From TrEMBL:
Record-given protein name: Large ribosomal subunit protein uL18
Matches recorded under NCBIfam families: L18_bact
InterPro entries listed in its UniProt record: Ribosomal_L18, Ribosomal_uL18_bac-type, Ribosomal_uL18_bac/plant/anim
Any matching Pfam family: Ribosomal_L18p
A GO BP annotation: translation
Domain of life according to the entry: Bacteria
Protein's organism: Candidatus Aquicultor secundus
One GO MF term: structural constituent of ribosome
Keyword Ribosomal protein: yes
Family, per entry: Belongs to the universal ribosomal protein uL18 family.
Keyword RNA-binding attached: yes
GO cellular component: cytosolic large ribosomal subunit
Keywords associated with the record: Ribonucleoprotein, Ribosomal protein, RNA-binding, rRNA-binding
Amino acid sequence: MGKTAEERIARLRRHRRVRKKVSGTAGKPRLSVFRSTNHIYAQLIDDVKGTTLVSASSLDSEIKPKIGSGGNIEAAKQVGALVAKRALEKKLGEVVFDRGGFIYH
């Protein structure tokens, strides 16, 4: 097994461990973040109903012209601002952060 495959398996293992502890509701949804090599995706999820309440990504038409590459820090800031704006429009003030197996500090 190559290094990349081992890293992917380790991330998925961490993700399963995090998901056991983190759950979102309609009042306090789960903020799920996924980073690929080229793009970043964020969504607010109500785990009780199993629905996505709000989503944003570096592929959105509002963000894509402002950023050069979808996988850089500026893209992450833009996606975060857009998902926050959309959440406030739906009157969602607090979220539970699901790091998805990635390391955030």
